[in-house]
Amino acid sequence: MTRFPRVQVTTMPDKKQDHVRDKGDPSALIDERIEQLGDWRGAKLAKIRALIKQAVPEVIEEWKWRGVPVWEHAGIICTGETYKNVVKMTFAHGASVADPARLFNSSLEGNTRRAIDFHEDDVIAEEALKALIRAAAERNVSHKSKSSRSTKKAGSS
Questions:
Q1: What is the 3 state secondary structure string of 56-96?
Q2: How far apart are CA 92 and CA 101, in angstroms?
Q3: Is the torsion defined by CA of 31, 33, 37, 40 positive or negative?
Q4: Domain boundaries in the chain?
Q5: What mean pLDDT comes out for the span 50-54?
Q6: CATH for the stretch 15-156
């Protein structure tokens, strides 16, 4: 039997990320981001956030990757990034979610993610967006239950 030496992995803390993490409640950090933006991007992000909460009331808000709002339900549903000319809503597994209203308009070339870029004058198709959010959450739940079944099968043999 070959024995491999134990390897201890250490990482250097990211000061900026630790600073954000130390601030506390992700929902409060998202509130703060919306307020700091103070323009159409903040209003658009607040509207998107409200629609997410309407679509999936049990959604969990997170604050990741140096200040990106993230919404989760059995995994990441989507993120809400803000840029100079766009508010980007990226769906973690958007390529696996049906989009009958054809809302996805960005990151279309990948095999996993899909995104919606909202510009200042864009009107949000609220019902279609809520349906897409619900479909993404349902995809996460379905995927999670499939993986737990396969783990149980593997463990029982």
A1: CCCCEEEEECCCEEEEECCCEEEEEEECCCCEEEEECCHHH
A2: 18
A3: negative
A4: 15-156
A5: 98
A6: 3.90.1150.200
